[in-house]
Input
Amino acid sequence: MNTDAPVSDSGAKPIMTARNVDVFYGKKQAIDNVSLDIPENQITALIGPSGCGKSTFLRCFNRMNDTIQICRVKGDIKFAGQDIYDPKVDVVALRSRIGMVFQKANPFPKSIFDNVAYGPRIHSLSESKDHLEDIVITSLKRAGLYDEVSDRLDEPGTSLSGGQQQRLCIARAIAVDPQIILMDEPCSALDPIATAIIEELMDSMKEKYTIVIVTHSMQQAARVSQQTAFFHLGELVESGDTKQIFTNPEKERTQNYISGRIG
Amino acid sequence: MSDEHIVSSFDEDMSRLRDLFLEMGRIVSSQIQAATRALRKEDRMLAKQVIANDKQLNRLESELNDLAIKILALRQPFAGDLRQVVATLKSAGHFERMGDLVRNSAQRTNTITKAEAETGSIETLVQMSETVQVMTNSILTAYERSDSEMAEEVRMQDETVDRLHNSLFREMLTYMMEDPRNISGCMHVMFMAKNIERMGDTVADIAKELIYMATGEWPEGSRTKKDKTSRIVIEPEADA
Output
């Protein structure tokens, strides 16, 4: 793989760049020399079979892999031109710029309001109680949840349905005004309607945010993303324009995977 | 691409789709052959058989459409599979249209044979028909092999049909001008020629679909159309 040139050719300005990234869990190499650009205000989908390294790669972007002791990340990952693995980087601040939504909705055992207010509070983003309320309401609106919960903001977040809980987690992520939102299979536990609502939400969110999503659903990747990157056995096999990947991929391995010929 | 899909019933559906398409193509080819023979031999029985056989094509096309829609809806194919389903679906529509054109030609053979209408030489018409039949057979082979180069050759062969059509058009106009009693038969021949010319274009369209199916790219540039009949005027004085 070319070590210098960006792998993405979407033409959009990259907000995040990964060059020659290797990830090891102990001695086992999970990611092998991956270079990829994440274009700004677009949705990038990472696809590939289980164990291909796509989630591991996603977690490099906000240093979530730091929480795993045996995990080592090599290579160069830059966010807005800055090396995010620089020892001087404040990881907590980094994660407020690069939020994350997980496979299983994980609201805090707090009220709907407090779930969303949590981030702004710990990052001291609000100047007053009214300001905090503004942030919470705006975030809930941006996550497409406000109308459904406006009359019960003091009820527990866990009382919501699965799809609503996931949108609550999205609201919580955007409350700290991030630039990038990482999503690790955000719809895998949701029914088709809740999934469609989140996909519609993602589409509207990309005007303000850059989204990177890991998904096992090829149809979802095709529906929501502008750029798709296909991982296999820890390597980035191919990345590019989503339409191109799903109609005429360059590499045979991509062709075989997306058409159901390798698992 | 690996041959086998993880889901074997997907392979079965795709294989059935291909078989239906090839069967349609083979019927079109044999219909062209039979229609040409009926014309040459003035065989009204055979012409009627060609007309009746067209129903088979319509039935197969309908089955193919249902299957392609089922594959798209239930299997949601991607990449090469997607291209194959879409190209096959569209091309099957082209074959069905060719079937209609052959049927119309057979009807005209029936009419002129029954009326014993004067048509002059039908050699050029037969030649056109034979060329389209060869193109049809080649396109079926190209489909089976997913051979884009062969499809490109077929696409180019349409020029021969267009040239023959131009020459037949002149022949018929001249023949009609010689004696108005020839007009009825010649008009039928000209419509038959137009049918065959359209069939040539249609096979070229299928070739285009197959190139996309095999390569993922549409062929560059438009095909040179050699059919000039829409611009030909022959003045009686000039010919006298």
Q: What stands out?
A: The first strand of chain A starts at residue 14 and ends at 25. The mean pLDDT of chain A is 92. The radius of gyration of chain A is 18 Å.
